[in-house]
Design goal:
The complex is a heterodimer. Chain A is an all-beta fold. In chain A, 0% of the residues lie in helices and 51% in strands. In chain B, a hairpin with a 7-residue loop joins strand 9 (86-92) and strand 10. Chain B is mostly beta strands. Chain B has no helices and eleven strands. The chains are: A mainly beta, B mainly beta.
Chain lengths: 113, 111
């Protein structure tokens, strides 16, 4: 299960706090993605990045921020502006920006109370 | 942007029966259509994919068909087994964009 890692597996935060989720890949992939998974909602795209120092908003970017300073890393910050942050967060990567298989990390389950 | 609809949301079959899951997409520029399987508590994993220049693709008990005119594609699983029980997601995209996923189908195979 190597290649793309997310940490931690479980994360607990108090409401009003920002929290950063880690995503690292050693697959030499150019593109990386963040999805949010809620029961019955599928995988919804938060942000994606095709190259270093560039990223695009997905369908549900409000309340989230990202950076892409290194090819291997694509951290996601869940800010206090995100109204319903409790969810399962999945990071993925692919060889190019789209039309190629996306490999997923194991996910981080974030609980905010 | 792309929108992917997936049906049914749940599907229950007897072991040995066939299962079919259908998806429609909205963006005619989409040209890549993968299917992912997600077992409980695990990450989604690609099981089969198809590109727009192909109408059908098979891999053992799994097949995917694509109708570009109607903008829909389907996953067919034959001779289902209990280990096929999982959530299945379809997705679509074109070069330079992220995959957009359907909401998933929970397949239950009873023995």
């Amino acid at each position: 299960d190597g290649g793309i890692t997310q940490s931690p597996k479980y994360l607990f935060r108090k409401e009003g706090q920002n929290v950063t989720l880690s995503c690292e890949q050693n697959l030499n992939h150019d593109a990386m993605y963040w999805y949010r998974q809620d029961p019955g909602q599928g995988l919804r795209l938060i942000y994606y990045s095709q190259i270093v120092n560039d990223f695009q908003k997905g369908d549900i970017a409000e309340g989230y921020s990202v950076s892409r300073e290194k090819k291997e890393s694509f951290p996601l910050t869940v800010t206090s502006a995100q109204k319903n942050p409790t969810a399962f967060y999945l990071c993925a990567s692919s060889t190019r920006g789209g039309s190629y298989e996306q490999y997923f990390g194991p996910g981080t389950r974030l609980t905010v109370t | 942007g792309e929108n992917v609809e997936q049906h049914p949301s749940t599907l229950s079959v007897q072991e040995g029966d066939s299962a079919v899951i259908k998806c429609t997409y909205s963006d005619s520029a989409s040209n890549y259509f993968p299917w992912y399987k997600q077992e409980l508590g695990k990450r989604p994993q690609l099981i089969i994919d198809i590109r727009s220049n192909v109408g059908e693709k098979k891999d053992q008990r799994i097949a995917v068909t694509l109708n570009k005119t109607a903008k829909h594609f389907s996953l067919h699983i034959t001779e289902t087994q209990p280990e096929d029980s999982a959530v299945y997601f379809c997705a679509a995209n074109q070069a330079g964009t992220a995959l957009i996923f359907g909401k998933g189908t929970t397949l239950s195979v009873s023995s």
